[in-house]
Amino acid sequence: MTSRESRNMEKTHTTLDSTLDSVDKAEDLVMKEAAAAGFDEDEQQQIGMAVRECAVNAVVHGNRYSKNKKVHLDIERSKESLAVTIGDEGAGFDMGSLPDPLAPENLLRQSGRGLLLIRAFMDEFDLHPRPGGGTEVRLVKHLPNR
Amino acid sequence: MSVKLTSRQVGDVTVIDAAGRITLGEGASAFRDMIRDLAAKGNKKLLLNLGEVSYIDSSGIGEMVSGFTTVTNNGGQLKLVGLSKRVKDLLQITKLYTVFEVYDDEADAVRSFH
């Protein structure tokens, strides 16, 4: 389900099931908005990957694939930036509990690199409790002056 | 498109040609199964050709690391060739350039096993 409103900013809200198909859908939706905003192909791919990592976290770690829990995707597109908020309905998340994926002793760990990639590809990253329960991540990428 | 994986022999080196997307789900699990299968069959010189891979997410990176560990623990080597700029960037960001031997040219990569 997607709703859209428009003034100086294009806003869409989409509610997604907790499935891996939703991860692909979230990535596709945001990449289309990134293209419409004027980001180049590399930037679109970076934004898409950051969203993909967040959506995977929401589906897999937050909602744990629950049929009863949804992923909430909000996209705000302006002339200056693209902001994406992804929320889950899970039990919450303590970022401090994650080991540093760049520490030598962690380089061969199979998982734990998602947030590193998100931070590398986006200009702003904020993770906070979602109103009503769960976790919400807000990502912002500013359009470069070209 | 998910990942497509095929293997071929170049002398005693097993080259795995990957194409498509290595992401959470079918792509990453197919990749894991292939590496484990080749390692279990005694292949110790594995070269992963990522030349046709358009996209790898953190799960795909995790499977590459897991494959590296599996092959190394089996007394073998897993090296990489044909990385796109985007995949090279991922290895830089994650510091995995310090883990994997990476080559631009397949012939150079094959020679490096000897």
| Total E-strand runs of chain A | 6
Alpha-beta content class of chain B: alpha/beta
- In total, the number of strands of chain B is 5
Examine the secondary-structure arrangement and name the CATH architecture of chain A: 2-Layer Sandwich
User: What is the H/E string of chain A?
Assistant: EEHHEEHEE
Please tell me about this protein's structure.
The complex is a heterodimer of chains A (146) and B (114). With 146 residues, chain A is α+β, with helices and mostly antiparallel strands. In chain A, 33% of the residues lie in helices and 29% in strands. Chain A contains three helices and six strands; from the N terminus they run ββααββαββ. Chain A has helices at residues 20-37, 41-62, 114-121, and strands spanning 2-6, 10-17, 70-77, 81-87, 124-129, 135-142. Chain A has a six-stranded antiparallel β-sheet with strand order 1-2-3-4-6-5, with helices on one face. In chain A, a hairpin with a 3-residue loop joins strand 1 and strand 2 (10-17). The longest helix of chain A has 22 residues, at 41-62. Chain A is globular, with a radius of gyration of 15 Å. Chain B has 114 residues and is α/β, with parallel strands linked by helices. In chain B, helix 3 (85-93) links the parallel strand 4 (77-81) and strand 5 (102-103). Chains A and B meet through helix 2 and helix 3 of A and helix 2 and helix 3 of B.
